[in-house]
Automatic annotation (TrEMBL):
Protein name, per record: Pentatricopeptide repeat-containing protein
Transit peptide recorded as keyword: yes
InterPro entries linked: DYW_dom, E2_motif, E_motif, PPR_At4g14850-like_plant, PPR_rpt, TPR-like_helical_dom_sf
PROSITE patterns: PPR (PS51375)
Length: 651
């Protein structure tokens, strides 16, 4: 039976029974979980042992390392000075400690005083200088090394990568490698690939990979990560599919890569394949990546299945894993579950708060977002620009212009995104002249998001002058964004200015701008069901259209009149009604009513902004059907219940 380290050190001391082989691991284990007081106690009791145990290098070095890990350099130095004989490991431990705490001068002094320097000593110096950003000094030390191994090469390569210095690496390392002047094993080549990927030199990494002939597992994983970082998912998949052996890192590189590159459905399908592989267990990175993909897609039920899978397999989550959980729940519109996870966390970082605040913002909970930022400051976590952006967005979506103004004024150096939120706040409050004044007087050049807020306000208030002003700037900044053309067309169409609508359409054709296809989807039984306008491809289309017709008859009896302003064609009223009547979100809601149990929340995601007519339609459906319907469009969440929407009809 294994002895508990606390018991070993707490029992009465019998020097003859305390061998160094027992005491050293006990000290390491104990000091790994205790504080400075525990370490000091361990130090004192070790010295009381006397004899062979006290003199044993392993005992001294275990204590020395424990001090270094905790940053107790004064205690470490005291112990070091008391040592009658110092082994190279002792010198290296304290040398590493000085670099760790940023005490470069002490590290240099100690290095100069070392009677014997081994490979580890030199490598510590290379790593230390690199962390200080002094990569040239690191290279001088590296060049002075009597011999080098894989670890020292990796230290130098990592130094180049950390400091973004690629030219020297290309000249001195890659050049020698390709000319066969340097014998570099597969581990160093893998580090090279990773370094070049971090520095944005994919082509150089590809050359090293090609030189390997028969690359090992680690090199393949590094190359997959490099391709994914550059957005070349096809090349990454080719390597992955060609690998004879794959480990969890291989799968994680692919799944996280797909997630980061917006291919969320593919990431989820690959995860399903991964869990079916015998002997392979997803880890926290896998779970976090898949939860993020579920959040982006808004598929709550599969996200919950992933959570249950992680619990059943005892996958331990760190802060980043819990942050992914908060993101998933928030993006799926179940903000209460996100709050529960947040409240259960014993430790939080700025990303935890930002994820929670962003979730509150998307759901229009402005006051809660402000309170959470205050709690964040009380926890001594400094809000960053993302925090303020989230709170301002929450105030905007929550209709809190004065609270938002106070938050904005508290920002020391607001950036253009913060100004965009301020403009949006004023626009939502109907203070269009003030919003325009902010744009004219702001200290930096406005970006597309800021002009987008003005254009949306022009649409909402049918203010042609404001809409045209904003659209003119947007056509310069992002000429290929079809959404800007559509919003201006909506303004013209709502006023019956069909010539202007036609002019915009011709302008789009001339510039090669294609209108993005609107698409809505809902998750049912872990399958995502997608619909586009007028879609009849679904196997339940006949039933879906029957439900839709029945719903329309009901709400027409309540006074519903289709809003045809979103139809950008000068056609007769009947044809316009037919066009708006089969919008993707209406088909998706009808499908949800068809397949979900009574009382179940219907959760719809749309890739574009929900139109005015669909918004009115779903509000009325929520009342007559007594159902809660949640729609996430590309701007925010709309929680429809009993004939009203959480957005208060401004989005």
């Amino acid at each position: 039976m294994r002895k508990h380290p606390f018991r070993i050190l707490k029992h009465p001391i019998n020097p003859s029974s305390r061998a160094p082989s027992t005491l050293a691991p006990a000290i390491r284990s104990l000091c790994g979980g205790g504080g400075a007081a525990v370490e000091a106690g361990a130090h004192a009791r070790a010295l009381k042992l006397g004899g062979a145990a006290a003199a044993a290098p392993r005992v001294r070095n275990a204590l020395l390392n424990s001090y270094v890990r905790r940053g107790a350099l004064d205690l470490a130095q005291k112990l070091f000075d008391e040592m009658p004989v110092r082994a190279p490991a002792d010198w290296n431990s304290i040398l590493s400690g000085y670099w760790k705490l940023g005490r470069k001068e002490k590290a240099l002094e100690l290095f100069d005083a070392m009677p014997v320097r081994n490979l580890i000593s030199w490598t510590i110096m290379v790593t230390g200088f690199s962390r200080f950003g002094e990569v040239e000094e690191a290279r001088k030390v590296f060049d002075a090394m009597p011999e080098r191994n894989v670890v020292s090469w990796n230290a130098m390569l990592s130094g180049y990568a950390q400091n973004g210095v690629i030219e020297q690496a290309l000249e001195s390392v890659l050049g020698a490698l390709l000319k066969r002047q340097l014998h570099v094993n597969c581990f160093v080549k893998t580090a090279l690939i990773d370094m070049f990927a971090n520095c944005g030199s994919l082509e150089s990494g590809r050359k090293v990979f090609a030189e390997m002939g028969d690359p090992n597992l680690a090199s393949c994983n590094a190359m997959i990560a490099a391709y994914m970082r550059e957005g070349d998912v096809t090349a990454a998949r080719e390597i992955f599919d060609g690998m004879k052996v794959k480990d969890v890192i291989s799968w994680n590189s692919m799944i996280s890569g797909y997630t980061q590159n917006g291919q969320w459905s593919v990431a989820i399908e690959l995860f399903k394949e991964m869990v079916s592989v015998e002997g392979l267990r997803p880890d926290e990175i896998t779970i976090s990546s898949v939860l993020s993909a579920c959040g982006h897609l808004g598929i709550l039920h599969f996200g919950k299945w992933v959570v249950d899978y992680a619990k059943e397999n005892k996958t331990r989550l760190s802060i980043s894993g819990y942050n992914a959980l908060i993101f998933m729940y928030s993006r799926c519109g179940v903000i209460e579950d996100a709050k529960r996870v947040f409240d259960e966390m014993t430790k939080r970082d700025v990303f935890s708060y930002n994820s929670m605040i962003s979730g509150l913002a998307a759901n229009g909970n402005g006051l809660e977002a402000i309170e959470l930022m205050r709690a964040m400051e009380e926890e001594c976590i400094e809000p960053d620009s993302v925090t303020y952006l989230g709170v301002l967005t929450a105030c905007s979506h929550g209709g809190l212009p004065e609270e938002g103004r106070r938050v904005f004024n508290a920002i020391e150096n607001p950036n253009v995104d913060h100004y965009a939120c301020k403009v949006d706040l004023l626009c939502r409050a109907g203070r269009l002249d003030e919003a325009r004044k902010v744009v004219d007087e702001m200290p930096m050049k406005p970006h597309a998001g800021l002009y987008g807020a003005l254009l949306n306000a022009g649409r909402k208030y049918r203010n042609v002058n404001l809409g045209e002003f904003a659209a003119k700037e947007l056509f310069k900044l992002e000429p290929e964004n079809s959404g800007n053309y559509v919003l201006l067309s909506n303004i013209y169409a709502s006023l019956g200015r069909w010539k202007d609508v036609d002019n915009i359409r011709r302008n789009m054709i001339a510039r090669g701008v294609n209108k993005m296809v609107g698409c809505s989807w809902v998750e049912f039984n872990h399958v995502v069901h997608r619909f586009v306008v007028g879609d009849r491809s679904h196997h339940l289309s006949e039933e879906i259209y029957k439900v839709l017709q029945k719903l329309e008859r009901k709400i027409r009896a309540m006074g519903y009149i289709p809003d045809k302003s979103c139809v950008l064609k000068d056609v007769d009223a009947e044809e316009k009604e037919e066009m708006v009547g089969t919008h993707s979100e209406k088909l998706t809601v009808a499908f949800g009513l068809l397949v979900f149990d009574t009382g179940q929340v219907i959760r719809v995601v749309k890739n574009l902004r929900i139109c005015d007519d669909c918004h009115t339609f779903i509000k009325m459906i929520s009342k007559i059907e007594g159902r809660e319907i949640v729609v996430r469009d590309n701007n925010r969440f709309h929680q429809f219940s009993d004939g009203s929407c959480s957005c208060k009809d401004y989005w």
